[in-house]
């Protein structure tokens, strides 16, 4: 079999054609591996007939759905490049990513018709020439084609695979400290090595059923779903997360494994009638993207559900460290040890290995690391050095090899599992004519883990919190927007002018109000 990720679905359909591959969390659709592969082949053949070329970028503005999954594997089979889009972004943010990636096609759900129509009206602000709308209750936009009609008229035969090895597979955008998103490039090889390394640590069993609750535009959701297909596991995918529905699916679908960020796990524990559900089938849940409170681990341990803590990045394709359920409470606060085909170092500012329990930057080495940042050689050179990926995260490693995250060099805020970079929010705030200076820090939030707090120096004393928050609505996705504003006379900076975020966190330590 060629090293083409799309052929993972082809092979699984050959090995287990009648096994359920995909179950829609709403209960509307069930597909076997043979059926999912047939739909993916149809789309692949339709795209080939429509003139798609190897290396062409295809943007995906889709909710969690069978269309997302079949499109991802179809794009892989024809040697094109998927560009998953965060559907929480506003048109300005989407425009930058689509233009930067050079995407010529977009597949979108009707929920996003408003944003897509806005993008289409901007003409050459993007390079999109083919607009494919997934049909629902809304009529097809006059500038778009029906995704289903295009797919369903094509052959189910296996197309000749056109991409492999070090060819690009997807570009996934992650915000950077400069405020502009960076496109993380993964290839067929890096993704396959991600599958190999996850297989060495994650204990799937024959007949497992995996609950996917995170958006598939995240590597934390896309990597496990791809792994499920690779290993023949049934994926039960929620279009959007709801804690009550999650327990209902665990009960009705006999879910055995799953993935949710800590905030989701916490919401699930708050369900009033939790004891009324039968979750005896559930062995473990993967979680990551934020520290996991010991109380949360103990709560799930008390109901006999293991929690596997993950540390990883978009740049690593998902895996870096994993804490097994067995050691989760004994090593509370740690994110575990390096994955199977992964090396981890903790280094000081000179690049020397730190002694046990001494903090330094986390470096990751593995064949699953990204190839590069798209069209950004300077950022690539700073991040990938002599085979090691510099994460920008600070951690310690004990004598047993357990890694504990201590801080984040980049001051990143993690809100409900979403990465929020202060520089991007600060840039949006500074676009307001009455704001002289702005800084953004994270505040602890019972609901989201962290929430952005805007600290503002106003040019005009009449500027209100409501005006600042309203200004951000058109500039930023909801999860990035500050939840509160504090007005100050000045913002503390060091001699070189850098904002002293540590001082700001000390000055504004209060809990988020939401």
CATH topology of the largest domain: Rossmann fold
Sheet with the most strands: spatial strand order: 2-1-11-10-12-13-14-15-16
Tally of strands? 27
In CATH terms, what is the architecture of the largest domain?
3-Layer(aba) Sandwich
Percentage of helical residues? 25-40%
Low-confidence parts = none
Task: Supply the CATH class of the largest domain.
Answer: Alpha Beta
Radius of gyration: 23 Å
Distance between the termini: 52 Å
Integer tally of domains: 2
SS-based structural class?
Answer: alpha/beta
State the shape.
globular
Q: Give the count of helical stretches.
A: 15
Strand content: 25-35%
Gist?
The protein is α/β, with parallel strands linked by helices and 514 residues long. Helices cover 29% and strands 26% of the residues.
Describe this structure as you would to a colleague.
The chain is an alpha/beta fold and 514 residues long. It is built from 15 helices and 27 strands. The strands form 6 sheets. The protein has a 9-stranded mixed beta sheet with strand order 2-1-11-10-12-13-14-15-16, with helices on both faces. Helix 1 runs antiparallel to helix 2 (33-49). The longest helix is centred in the first third of the chain and has 17 residues, at 33-49.
